[in-house]
Amino acid sequence: MKYATTINDKTYLIEINDDQHVVVDGKTYRIDLAAGSGQALYSLLIDNRSFEAFVDEGDVEGDLRVLMRGDLYDVKVVDERAARLAKSVGGSVAETGDYHLKAPMPGLVVSVPVTEGQAVNKGDILVILESMKMQNELKSLRAGTVTRVKTKGGDSVEQNQVLVTVSG
Amino acid sequence: MSNVTKVLIANRGEIAVRIIRACRELGIPTVAVFSEADRNALHVRYADEAYFLGPAPSRESYLRSDKILDVARRSGADAIHPGYGFLAEREDFAGACAESGITFIGPKPSSIAAMGDKAVARATVTRAGVPVIPGTEAEGSLRDEEIVAVAPQIGFPLLIKATAGGGGKGMREVHSTADLPHALASARREAESAFGDGNVYLEKLVTGARHIEIQIMADTQGNVIHLGERECSIQRRHQKVLEEAPSPFVHEDETLRQRMGEVACRAAAAVGYINAGTIEFLVDKEKNFYFLEMNTRLQVEHPVTELVTGLDIVKEQIRVARGRKLSREQDEIKMNGWAIECRINAEDPYNNFMPSTGTIIASILPTGPGVRVDTCAYSGYTIPRFYDSLISKLICWGETRGEALLRMRRALEEYKIVGVKTNIPLHQNLLDSHRFMAGQFDTRFLEERFEMNDATAPHPEVAAILATLVAHRRGQHAAQIVQRGERDTSNWKWVGRYERMHR
Questions:
Q1: I need a labelling partner for B480 at 20 to 30 A (CA). Which of A41, B20, B93, B181 fits?
Q2: Closest-CA residue in chain B for A43?
Q3: What is A90-167's CATH topology?
Q4: pLDDT tens readout for residues A151-168
């Protein structure tokens, strides 16, 4: 299978045909991938060079984040068929109008400084959430109008619970 | 002479484990206490006895001095070590221990009270000839209007600090009168929530300052010695992140070290101090130093001092609590080599340091020459959200600062914690920074002049290959196992299940 993999605006054409080899921009490498402890830590041998790294989901759906030797790489991996498909559709789908602020961790809502119907700018504080003894200011990633406030000061919230919705 | 024959540790996390270790080595039985969230914590397992306190929030467990004293009575513990945080700097708790005939392993209640009230502390050390930073602490609790009025007299930039504070909670920096109201409100809110006391004061912000502290030890016979300095300038949101001993700023300036040490001993003596304590100083570029505060307890970063002096501070604390003389005289304290501590916090350095809770799936500890790890985390441990995010302290020793730094780099690379995000990458980037290597930093360095620079990361091709292989596997497995539209969980879980099946 062929992939177009991009890091920092540089795209690598990577072909995977079996478990022992990859072809990167026409050059063949012997590889050996082992999933280490847990589900996110991998050990990779490339022509006997040993690398250990965390591979995690990125911020954008489908992207991966590779954390290796103290460096973080944001990686976009697109398989050939998907790339062709995207081209025929004409680029990616525009962002939808709603931004849902989700609790990044379980915690206690200290306050919600916005109300429904209020206009907000990108970076405005939507919720102050206390967790692990720190107060964290959760900011809007988008300018728009607050359409739903689903929490209030004093609430205990779970991770990924939607707190506030901003519509663009 | 007080007996210390059984020690109750009124704390949790890595520090409870640390104290239990000292007791074990001394052959003293230990009593742990735990909240609902900590049944599986290491300190519960390592202690000889463990008693349930109450629900997870600190207020209902680790801050319940009545329950803790009751456990002491029931278990027959005749001494309590408070660790840091929680009840460590509460004079009422130290007093209650004394009333119950229990030895509090720490200073007298009156010393805690004197140093805990910052206005009293400043006045006391000023009388002892110790320099302090200009501010409003001596004025007591001021209302917002009074603070706004007095601010321009001290001059900007300013710091708002919580009267009952510590650890950066309730602290805000202000650059103009216009910023004051918002900063005051949020500082008071945070202080109220952290300490149950919303009172704040102003202090002049010394720019280009370093945070250097002196560890002192005092016994009941009137001996006060210092164990040299620790460099604690690497901070984020006024929380220490990395500490070292000695300080690269003081380093070979033995005169400065002894001057600061003598002043620290004088400050401690001024409140009749007994046991381990730390005098924090701000040091400006001209090597003027100002008293910041005294921490009347064991510090998080005490291990760096232990590694360079060879003294076990917790054992020394117990020795002092038993009424014995300090094991060393001042001229027997020599700094040998260099030690660095990285605080490993469960937080995401790539997402504004958001705390990360969850279960640690795997933890691979660094080992080998010159490496020490003080931790409460292990594979299968779930980090509770009720307490702070410090899960481990990685401490490395080297003959020189250079060796200690290189060793720390090596150890950070070995340290693998899977399941929660940690700030290990922050430490790795910091240790790669030229300014840090050269020792050229102040308390603002980490937040203002340091960036996690990943654009020049050296192995993009390897990362590309790895990500592609993982995506490839994921896609293949998902296609094999999952029928379209029926997936109720993430691909990651499927990959994990697949790998477990095919192991």
A1: A41
A2: B466
A3: OB fold (Dihydrolipoamide Acetyltransferase, E2P) (2.40.50)
A4: 999 999 988 889 999 887
Would you place residue B503 in the very low, low, confident or very high pLDDT band (cuts 50, 70, 90)?
Answer: low
3-class SS string, B344-409: EECEECCCCCEECCEECCEEECCCCCCEEEEECCCCCCEECCCCCCEEEEEEEEECCHHHHHHHHH
Contact A51, A44 (CB under 8 A): yes
Which whole number is the average pLDDT over B255-273?
Answer: 96
How many residues in chain B?
503
Calculate how close chain A gets to B131, using CA atoms only, in Å: 32
For residues B472 and B465, give the distance between their C-alpha atoms in angstroms, rounded to a whole number. 10
Backbone angles phi, psi at A44, to 5 degrees: -125, 130
B277 class by beta-carbon count within 10 Å (0-12 exposed, 13-18 middle, 19+ buried): buried
Nearest Cα residue to B473 out of B501, B494, B447, B487: B494
Q: Which of B436, B466, B474 to mutate to test the interface with A (most CBs of A within 10 A)?
A: B466
Q: How far apart are CA B136 and CA B160, in angstroms?
A: 10
pLDDT, residue B493, reads 63
Element (H, E) at B340: strand B338-345
| pLDDT tens-place string over residues A13-64 | 999 989 999 999 999 999 999 986 556 899 999 999 999 999 988 766 678 9
Greatest C-alpha distance within chain B: 78
**What is the tens place of the pLDDT at every residue in B12-36?**
999 999 999 999 999 999 999 999 9
Ramachandran sector of residue B246 (left: φ over 0; alpha: ψ -120 to 50; beta: rest): beta
Which residues contact residue B362 at a Cβ distance below 8 angstroms, ignoring those fewer than 6 apart? A36, A37, A38, A41, B379, B416, B417, B418, B419
Residues of A with CB below 8 A from B452's CB?
Answer: 72
- The one-character DSSP state at B132 is B
Closest CA to A130 of B335, B409, B424, B189: B189
**Residue B149 forms contact with A (CB below 8 Å):** no
Task: Give the pTM.
Answer: 0.82
Q: List Cα–Cα distances, A162 to A28, A165, B464, in angstroms.
A: 46, 8, 33
- Chain A contact for B98 (CB, 8 A cutoff): no
A68 DSSP β-pair partners: A71
Residues in chain A: 168
Q: Determine the pLDDT at residue B97.
A: 97
Find, in chain B, the residue whose alpha carbon is nearest to that of A82. Answer: B475
Residue range B202-222: mean pLDDT, rounded: 93
Å between A115 CA and nearest CA of chain B? 19
Average pLDDT, chain B: 92
Smallest Cα distance from B64 to chain A, Å: 17
> For residue range A81-120, what is the model confidence (pLDDT) as tens digits?
776 766 655 444 444 578 888 888 888 899 999 999 999 9
Whether A143 has its CB under 8 Å from any CB of chain B: the answer is no
pLDDT of residue B389: 94
Backbone angles phi, psi at A104, to 5 degrees: -70, -15
More confident residue, B36 or B118: B36
pLDDT digits (tens, 9 = 90+) for B97-107: 999 999 999 99
Distance CA B109, CA B477 (A): 64
> How confident is the model over B376-393, as pLDDT tens digits?
999 999 999 999 999 999
Contact B361 A16 (CB under 8 A): no
CATH 3.30.700.30 fits A2-80, yes or no: yes
How would you class B349 by CB atoms within 10 Å of its CB: exposed for 0-12, middle for 13-18, buried for 19 or more?
buried
d(CA B115, CA B271): 8
Strands annotated E in A8-121 = 10-16, 21-24, 27-35, 41-46, 49-57, 64-68, 71-79, 98-102, 107-111, 119-120
